[in-house]
C-alpha cells in the first residue's frame, strides 16, 4: 500500500458545522493506519484549538478536546496561518496544542508538498 502524504485543512469555526469534527476523526483514522498526515488551520479554524472552549451554551459535544490526543497518534505536523491568528486576535499561548505558525506564503508552500489535500 502506497503511503500518500495527507494534508487536512481546517477552515471552519468549531461549531458552525460538523466539518471540524469530521476532519479530526479522519486525521485520527489515517494516523491509526500509519499514513503520513499534517493538519493545517486557516480562516476561522484556529478557534478549534483555543483553550477553554465552552460548548455547553450550544448544547453540543466538545469534540475539540480530541486535538489534545494528536501526540498519542504521532500527528506532529500542525500548522496555523499567522494571518488567521491575527484576525482572530489569538496567539500561541491561547491554543491548547503546540503548532507551527506560518505566514500565508509559507502555509501555501508547505501545503504544496502533500499528495492528498482534504478541506474541512
From TrEMBL:
Pfam families, alphabetized: DsrE
Family (UniProt): Belongs to the DsrF/TusC family.
Name of the protein: DsrE family protein
Amino acid at each position: 500500500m502506497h503511503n500518500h502524504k495527507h494534508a487536512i485543512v481546517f477552515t471552519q469555526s468549531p461549531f458552525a458545522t460538523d466539518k471540524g469534527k469530521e476532519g479530526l476523526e479522519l486525521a485520527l483514522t489515517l494516523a491509526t493506519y500509519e499514513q503520513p498526515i499534517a493538519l493545517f488551520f486557516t480562516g476561522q479554524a484556529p478557534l478549534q484549538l483555543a483553550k477553554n472552549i465552552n460548548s455547553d451554551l450550544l448544547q453540543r459535544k466538545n469534540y475539540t478536546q480530541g486535538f489534545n490526543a494528536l501526540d498519542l497518534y504521532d500527528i506532529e505536523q500542525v500548522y496555523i496561518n499567522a494571518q488567521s491568528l491575527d484576525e482572530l486576535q489569538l496567539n500561541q499561548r491561547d491554543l491548547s496544542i503546540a503548532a507551527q505558525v506560518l505566514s500565508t506564503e509559507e502555509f501555501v508552500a508547505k501545503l504544496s508538498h502533500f499528495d492528498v489535500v482534504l478541506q474541512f
